[in-house]
Amino acid sequence: MATFLYRLGRFSFRKRHVVALFWVALLALAGAGAAGAPAAGNSSFSIPGTEAQKAFDLLEERFPGSSADGATARVVFKAPDGEKMTDPGNRTTVQETVDELSGGSEVARISDPYQADGVSQDGTVAYASVTYKVPGMELEEPTREALKAAAEDARDAGLTVEIGGDALQAVPETGSAEIIGIGVAAVVLVITLGSLLAAGLPLLTAIVGVGIGVATITALAGTLDLGSTTSILASMIGLAVGIDYALFVVSRYRAELAEGREREEAAGRAVGTAGSAVVFAGLTVVIALVGLSVVNIPMLTKMGIAAAGTVAVAVLIALTLIPAVLGYAGRRIPAAGEKSKLLGGGRAKKKADRPNMGTRWASFVVRRPLAVLLLGIVGLGAAAVPAGSLELGLPDDGSQPTSTTQRRAYDLLSEGFGPGFNGPLAVVVDAQGSEDPQAVFRQAGDEIKALDNVVNVAPAQPNKAGDTATITVVPDAKPSSVTTEDLVHDIRAAGADIKADSGADVLVTGATAMNIDVSQKLNDALVPYLVLVVGLAFLLLIVVFRSILVPLKAALGFLLSVLAALGAVVAVYQWGWLSGLMGVEETGPIMSMMPIFMVGVVFGLAMDYEVFLVTRIREAHVHGEKPSQAVVTGFRYSARVVTAAAVIMIAVFSGFIGASDSMVKMIGFGLAIAVLFDAFVVRMAIVPAVLALLGDKAWWLPKWLDRALPNVDVEGESLAAHGGTADKDGDEDKELVRA
Fold it and tell me: Could you give the 3-state DSSP secondary structure of residue 130?
């Protein structure tokens, strides 16, 4: 592989115009597709194989035209102090609002609070439910404006009016903090590479890669049902790995220049060595992201595949566009140890023989490996403690900032009708095969009323055929509580008894039931997912490092860092520690999809640093250095760049903490803290300590396995055959084409 990538690097350097034109054309093509595509909305949410999804599908089949997947809005009214919503004046205002909204072309139906039991017992709060014909993100802007205008008219009449539901749901924004993250990345690149131009290359190429990836996702959003969150997460991950991969290639290029090689040769060797590490690091990320499909939640699968595609683009750009751009930069990119004229006058760095920080740190670790190892494990173990209290859930209006009308409507409904009113359960009774469906409906209602933690059970609402009915159940606790989860299980247990008696199916759905089923499905899928992803990556790393213990250490280190990161997420977003600093206005359960998505992404990124750091150590070991000295040598050449890459990735991920979408905000924090733990505790402390303790045993591989494994030559040992010479007649290009 190293030889092929070496030729690819030289080809891209020499044929830079062709390579640059290809990527610019690809960016333009993707941009044109995105410009002509409709705006992305929310991906349709389905959970195949769950009871909640089965009930939802049954509703669409037996209640045609009910707009089960349509947007909803709850217009909540509160009377002024000392007044009631049943007062004639307030009642007239509500009726006028209902009449005004019912005339909308996208409105499927609307409930009258005074006819649908929509007034609280104390008479201070009332609500009207509006159901639309299309999902929330597909509502036309005039429909949203009409909803806002109707609420404003009621406010002008003296009522407090707020709007809940998803009808006013906006496309999530990432906020200005993302720009700050990129700015921090730029500063780190300048410090690391000592040149403004060299620092600009990783940023430029990463932005090109993210632009292609996000534009492609936008262009295909309608066809593939990709939500707006998909492109945000793809840009988050693509930008981070794009900068890092480019940084490693540029840094190796400057190191090759420092050894006196010609620029084309240096580009070829940079791609042949650092590029090999980029390929395998990128493969681990792609495996982790594509592996999310084993969960069998379509939205999560699409998010993983889209992000994996963006990572693949970042890898290809690092291998081709980076050497091409280096060809354009020419002598303006200084060799390692030199600074640009702007930053250092082009002078060589003084005291070149002085050990750098990486060398000093590695020397310290190999002298005291056991102490460093124990300290790292204990520290991460302490950070992981809160993960034992992890509670999963899906966001609702109660998790919105208090400044939003959705959150204020949620609070008003809780105040007037109780906390469980915001998470009603929809019980679907399928009595198609029963002799007396009406009797089954009554039996189901009576048995549900007899359960604990039930505030209200509405009368069964049968369909036109009379063989299926819906029963709305209001719990006495908030949607995300354990009490409500227990009630869902109790209803399902009662439904099993009804089925045994009458043959009718009793199914529970609704947002709360969906939440419970998602959490259970994700919990069930976590172990198979870890086995698949860690297993595949373990095999891949055996090929890369030609060792059993080094990949095993990498996997165990990943588990430490991800558990510690989950502990930090729980501490901030569930317990409320440092919540003000992180912009968390409402603590609560952790997003159901967040842990498994974070596990996938963090595993891929953790393997990045493992590959980049340990390949340098193995390279020194392969060339005859003793194990402890190889660790020091590896850190001398790679610690600075790995540190810079980690800081860049942390800065980019942290930028998304300012996003408006709670899932994006939480994932941004989780990934940032996970990279912090993994890069600076696991890879920079635990890894060298373990390698120092293992000595030569770290690189042990059974002889039969050594013979069976392909030699991928990540260290670029085969490049020695090229001897730094190049065929100026273009034979390299011909060989590349044949390869």
Answer: strand
Per-residue DSSP letters for 533-577? HHHHHHHHHHHHH--SHHHHHHHHHHHHHHHHHHHHHIIIIIS-T
Distance between CA atoms of 275 and 269, rounded to whole angstroms? 9
- State the Cα–Cα distance between residues 735 and 712, nearest whole angstrom: 19
Cβ–Cβ < 8 Å for 370, 689: yes
Strand, helix or coil for residue 713:
coil
Provide the pLDDT for residue 739: 41
3-state secondary structure of 409: helix
Q: Which residues in 514-534 are b (16+ Cβ under 10 Å) and which e?
A: bbbbbbebbeebeeebbebbb
Q: In sequence order, which residues have a C-beta less than 8 Å from that of residue 388 and are 6 or more positions away? A: none
600: nearest Cα among 537, 687, 542, 646: 537
Which residue, 452, 335, 404, 456, is CA-closest to 166? 404
Most confident of the ranges 301-305, 350-354, 489-493, 621-625: 489-493
| Three-state secondary-structure class, residue 531 | helix
How many angstroms separate the CA atoms of 77 and 125, rounded?
A: 6
The residues with which 162 forms a beta bridge, in sequence order, are 76
Radius of gyration of the chain, Cα coordinates, nearest whole angstrom? 30
Q: Tell me the torsion sign for CA atoms 278, 359, 336, 642.
A: positive
340 touches 334 (CB < 8 A):
yes
pTM of the complete model = 0.77
Q: How many CB atoms lie within 10 A of CB 114?
A: 16
What is the tens place of the pLDDT at every residue in 227-283?
667 787 788 788 888 888 898 899 889 888 888 889 999 999 889 888 888 888 888
334 pLDDT above the threshold of 90: no
210 phi-psi bin (left φ>0, alpha ψ -120 to 50, beta other): alpha
Other CB atoms within 10 Å distance of the CB of residue 623: 12
| HEC assignment per residue over 237-295 | HHHHHHHHHHHHHHHHHHHHHHCCCCHHHHHHHHHHHHHHHHHHHHHHHHHHHHHHHHH
Q: What is the mean pLDDT of residues 153-162?
A: 93
* Higher-pLDDT residue of 80, 192: 80
**Helix or strand or coil: residue 131?**
strand
Q: Could you give the C-alpha distances from 665 to 269, 509, 522, 523, in angstroms and in order?
A: 40, 28, 20, 22
Length of the chain: 739
